[in-house]
Amino acid sequence: MGRGRPESQDLVNESTINVAGLLQDAVGGKREYGIRLDAFALADDLQAARLGGIVRLTRLSDVILASVRLEGQVHMECVRCLRTYVEAIRTRFEEEYRPTVDVRTGGHVHVDRTEEETDELFEINELHELDLGEAIRQHVILSLPMRPDCGEDCPGPAPLARDESEIDERLARLGALLDGDEAAEVAAWRP
Ligand SMILES: [Zn+2]
Predict the structure, then answer these.
(1) Sign of the CA dihedral running 63, 64, 67, 71
(2) Ligand 1: centre distance to CA 159 (Å)
(3) Every domain of the chain and the residues it spans
(4) Residues near ligand 1 ion, CB 5 Å cutoff
(5) What is the pLDDT of residues 30-84, one digit of tens each?
(6) How far does residue 86's CA lie from ligand 1's centre (Å)?
(7) C-alpha 145 – ligand 1 centre gap (Å)
(8) Residues 136, 28: contact at Cβ < 8 Å?
(9) Could you tell me the distance, in angstroms and rounded to a whole number, from the CA of residue 95 to the centre of ligand 1?
(10) Ligand 1 centroid vs 165 CA: distance in angstroms?
(11) How far away, in angstroms, is 88 Cα from ligand 1 center?
(12) CA-CA distance, 125 to 133, in Å (whole number)?
């Protein structure tokens, strides 16, 4: 993963890259990194694991373009059997990051785009750090299935209580709460 390239290093359990050097490159300058995130929180109750892939950064005239390819796993709950299973995920995305502080002068950087366009860009912080974390979080979530399903071996919905003695017991308890005709009706429901 990028080893042997003088300009590259791997990101291991971190998603932030210092881009001070790349910001001083000519337009078209590139960097490439391998990335590995052993555990990555997507939301309060949603975790990705073993994310791995490639990050390519390209210096454009006013922003840095990040092109990211990732594979990994997300622990999800099957909609049918409600068991937790491992969903294999794969995502590929591009996002633009705008500098906020000029790397040479330290002054504020204006991006020549509409306000609306500017709002859609991620920001490189004042220390010239580009953090891929939020983009990774959003794109991994987008890659998840709408109806998580544990697959061919899914046992299906958990069976309802079919044990007759259990049913009898419940009806008896319900009957005890009722009186007269209602109790008789409950008794009539018995299978
Ligand atoms: Zn299932």
Answers:
(1) negative
(2) 13
(3) 11-142, 160-191
(4) 78, 80-81, 150, 154
(5) 999 999 999 999 999 999 999 999 999 999 999 999 999 999 999 999 999 999 9
(6) 11
(7) 13
(8) no
(9) 34
(10) 28
(11) 15
(12) 13
* Closest to 17 measured CA to CA, from 109, 113, 114, 136: 136
Question: pTM for the whole thing?
Answer: 0.77
How far, in Å, CA of 139 to CA of 35, rounded? 15
CA distance 143 to 126: 31
Ligand 1 center from residue 79 Cα (angstroms): 7
Pairing of strands 11-12, 30-43: parallel
185 vs 44 pLDDT, higher one: 44
Handedness of CA 177, 182, 185, 189 (dihedral sign): negative
Could you give the CA distance from residue 19 to residue 7 in angstroms, rounded to a whole number? 12
CA distance 68 to 93: 5
Looking only at the bridges linking them, the beta strands covering 84-99 and 122-124 are parallel
DSSP 8-state assignment for residue 160: P
Å from CA of 46 to ligand 1 middle: 17
Contact 38, 73 (CB under 8 A): no
| pLDDT value for 1 | 41
**pLDDT tens for each residue of 25-35:** 999 999 999 99
For 50-85, the DSSP string reads EEEEEEEEEE-SSSEEEEEEEEEEEEEE-TTT--EE
